[in-house]
Known about the structure:
With 208 residues, the protein is mostly helical. It is built from 9 helices and no strands.
Amino acid sequence: MAATAHAEPPNAKTLLEDAKQNFQPIVIPPPINDSVTAARIELGRRLFFENRVSMDGNVSCAHCHLPDKQASDGLPKAIGVFGKENPRNAPSIFNAALNFKQHWRGERESLEDQAEKSLLGAVSFGNPDQATAMSKLKAVPAYAGAFAKAFPGDQDPINSKNWGVAVGAFERTLLTPSKFDAFLSGDASALSKQQQAGLRKFIDIGCA
Length: 208
C-alpha cells in the first residue's frame, strides 16, 4: 500500500489517546445563525472598546486587554481609571470563556459576572454604582437601538446585567485554538516528533 501524505509518527495514536484523558481541545463553534445572539456579540464588541463608561472617560475593557498584546496589557500591574495602579496584572481574556472561575480572586462566576462587576471596580472603571455607569451609555443615542436589538422585549434594555451579557457574548468568541488543539482533535501531524516527545514526557512524569 502507498503511504499516506500525513503518515502518523510512531505511537502517535497511543499518545493521542493518553492526551485526551487529560486535555480537551478548543473547538470553534459554528457560525451564529440566531439574530439576537449575533446582535449581542456585536454590541459586546462595541462595549468592549467603549471608554466613556469609565469615570475619567479613558478606560475601556480594551484598555487592559489589548488584542495586540495577547488580550492583556504587558504591564506588571494594570493601570486603570485616573491612572490608578491595580494590585494585579491584567489576565488575558483569550480563551477566558473556558475558565471555571473569572478574576484573579476567583470570586466571579462567569464572563458576564466579571464584566458587570468590573464597572464598579475602584481601579478599573471607578463607577460608584451601576446607575452612574449606565447613564453614560444612555447619553449615547446610538446605544438605544443597539441594546433594543440585542435585548428585544426589555422595556429598559440599557442596564448593567445586559452590559455583562453583551460583553460576555463577545468574549466567548475570543477562542484561539493551537496546534495542540488540532492534535487533540485527531490531526497527528499537527505536532512535530520533538513536540510529541515533549508531550509524552509531560504526561509520563505526571505534569498533566
